[in-house]
Amino acid sequence: MKDILVHVDSGERARMRIEVAVDLAKRYGARLTGLFAQVDSHRTAAVARMASESLKKAQAEGETLFNTLTKGVETRFWALPHGESGFVSAEIMFCSRYFDLVVLGQNDPKDNTTPDDMVEQAVLNCGRPVLVLPYLGTYSSVAHRIVIAWNAGREATRAVHDSLDLLKQAKTVSVLSMRAHDDSGAAQSMPPVNILDHLTKLGIPCDGEFLPDEEIGKMDMLLSRSFDLGADLLVMGAHGQYGLSRLRGSGTRYVLKHMTLPVLMSH
Q1: Where do the domains of the chain lie, and which CATH numbers do they carry?
Q2: Core vs surface per residue 36-64: b (16+ CB within 10 A) or e
Q3: Contacts by residues 39-45 (CB-CB < 8 Å, ≥ 24 positions apart)
Q4: pLDDT at residue 256 above 60?
Q5: Which of 41, 43, 79 shows the shortest CA–CA distance to 60?
Q6: What is the DSSP annotation of 135-163?
Q7: Which of 3, 39, 74, 131 has the fewest CB atoms in 10 Å of its CB?
Q8: pTM of this structure
Q9: What does the CA dihedral 33, 38, 42, 44 come to, rounded to 10 degrees?
Q10: CA 106, CA 96: separation in Å to the nearest integer?
Q11: What is the 3-state composition of the chain as percent helix, strand, coil, each rounded to the nearest 5?
Q12: Which among 42, 24, 44, 41 is positioned nearest to 33, based on CA atoms?
């Protein structure tokens, strides 16, 4: 992990995103790029695809904050030329493709600086792991106690391998299996594939458990158990609106809306 992107805007949570990104950059010796992007509150300027004076002021303040918090780290600061909503979402997604990790913030319903769908569009379309920080709670460092949501799907596999650098430095790693546990013996003749065995072979000590089938929804159970384990990062695959898997589509959107801890998603 040598190249990290963090989203900067004039929102209250920008400082926390930068602080988390700086901590990761220092831990991995990475370059950190701050990308200022937000919706322009001046509708005429947004429609004309020009930055209003208020947006220019917010950008200057964002750059000052970024430079203040990133001393001792190799950095760059970029800014989008205007704040039309669709443009902001598209450019965040596009720029994210050129980094090892992207740090974004969960959409805050009380904050109108970013498009509602910006994070989801980035997660599902940038092709890179996206670390999403909740709009509630305080974090200055993450990925010391990691939980992996595992369903043996393509996206979960991608998320695990996208996060190997983080997993290898974590103090604890717990795998919460979203698959039903088969005690029938019917699978005894099949290859004994096991994600715990694979991670251990990579030098990542970990433990695992199956989430029971109960009335509580799987995503709520996943978030609740992550909290019980004291996790400061949930690693999971992200899914678009297709298929019938319990982790697909609506589950990803649910976690993005109701997350109670930082979440790293890959698609």
Answers
A1: 3-133 (3.40.50.620), 145-266 (3.40.50.620)
A2: bbbbbebeebbeeebbbeebeebbeebbe
A3: 39/83, 39/84, 39/85, 39/88, 39/112, 39/113, 39/114, 39/115, 40/82, 40/83, 40/84, 41/112, 45/82, 45/83
A4: yes
A5: 79
A6: SSS--S---SEEEEEE-S-HHHHHHHHHT
A7: 74
A8: 0.92
A9: 80
A10: 16
A11: 35, 20, 45
A12: 24
Res. 95: pLDDT tops 60: yes
Give CA–CA dist 105/132, Å, rounded: 5
Tell me the two tokens of residue 73: 């780290």
Q: Kindly state the tokens that stand for 126.
A: 């940038």
Cα separation of 102 and 88, whole Å?
15
Answer whether residue 122 shows pLDDT above 90.
yes
Residues linked to residue 236 through DSSP beta bridges, in sequence order: 265
Mean pLDDT check: name the lowest of 52-66, 71-85, 169-183: 169-183
